[in-house]
Amino acid sequence: MKDINTAPFLQEMVELTSQMYRLGWDERNGGNISFLLHENEVAPYLATTSSLRTLPLGFSAPALAGEFFLVTGTGKYFRNVKRDPETNLGLFRIGEDGQTAELFWGYRDGGRFTSELPAHLMSHQARLSVDSENRIVLHCHPTHLLAMNYIHPLDEKSVSHTLWQMSTECIVVFPEGIGVLPWMLCGTNEIGLATAEKMKGFRMVIWGMHGVYAAGKTPDEAFGLVETAEKAAQIYTLTSHTERINTITDAQLKELAEAFGVSYRQDFFDC
């Protein structure tokens, strides 16, 4: 077997958690990531004929039975993942019953996956139903997107339109806009179900006064979604208290989207 520490998927996860912590998106243990892996990626690094232990999912996910996931641990700090990935991450397979996780590596201190795993699995199922290549779901607390929650109406049309206007690249990067949920109790199946429903139409969902969920085909895509929206939110928070004398018009936004060949939410325009 090859050393799992050299596995591309593990190195990507270590880099992703490190960058998210560096940017201040995941203070303390405030964030979680799940990475869907294919068996042929895992097999060179781990024997998957017998598991270390079995953990209850707390959620029934029969559609994901047999799938492998690399997931951050509950109560774990992103800043520690690079130093000790085997304690702060875990790699498991969803059991055939869809209700258990067969752990093959990680959670070395006896820990377990994030308490928000059911919400992640719900979002994976939702995204896979519209994009069979979706592999990453991440949750974080980007500073300026969170600040924007307190000074901007929290509805999908106005949030998406405002962010599109803050930077030329936004409508190209997230042409479908951003989903929005009101404040809900985190760590529950209720918020997981609501997020998954939004994920059928959006790759990024704001949890009001809390943070965001984002999904993508690769770690770069999911990270880049948040990164782009966060930069736009920063521009908004820096300028929202002043008179705006220039803006990207709706006509220009449409011109951008059409020039780049992206399918955008036409109902999110004011004109």
Structural summary, described in words:
The protein is 37% helix and 17% strand. It contains ten helices and nine strands. A nine-stranded mixed beta sheet has the order 2-5-4-3-1-6-9-8-7, with helices on both faces. Helix 4 (117-130) packs parallel to helix 8 and helix 6 packs across helix 9 (219-239). The mean pLDDT is 95.
Q: From the 3D structure, determine the CATH topology of the largest domain.
A: L-fuculose-1-phosphate Aldolase
Instruction: Provide a count of the helices.
Output: 10
Tell me the strand percentage band: 15-25%
The tally of beta strands, per DSSP, is: 9
Question: Radius of gyration, rounded?
Answer: 19 Å
Shape: elongated
Sequence of strands across the biggest β-sheet: 2-5-4-3-1-6-9-8-7
- Regions with little confidence, pLDDT below 50 for 5+ residues: none
How does the helix and strand content classify structurally? alpha+beta
CATH superfamily annotation of the largest domain: Class II aldolase/adducin N-terminal domain
Q: Encode the helix/strand succession as letters.
A: HEHEEHEEHEHHHEHEEHH
Overall mean pLDDT score? 95
Percent of residues in helical segments?
Answer: 25-40%
Q: Cα distance, first to last residue?
A: 60 Å
List its salient traits.
271 residues; alpha+beta; L-fuculose-1-phosphate Aldolase; 9-stranded mixed sheet
Task: Produce the secondary structure layout.
Layout: H1 8-22, E1 32-37, H2 39-42, E2 53-56, E3 68-72, H3 85-88, E4 89-94, E5 100-106, H4 117-130, E6 136-140, H5 143-148, H6 156-166, H7 170-173, E7 179-181, H8 189-199, E8 204-207, E9 211-216, H9 219-239, H10 250-260
Parallel strand pairs: 7-8
Antiparallel strand pairs: 1-3, 1-6, 2-5, 3-4, 4-5, 6-9, 8-9
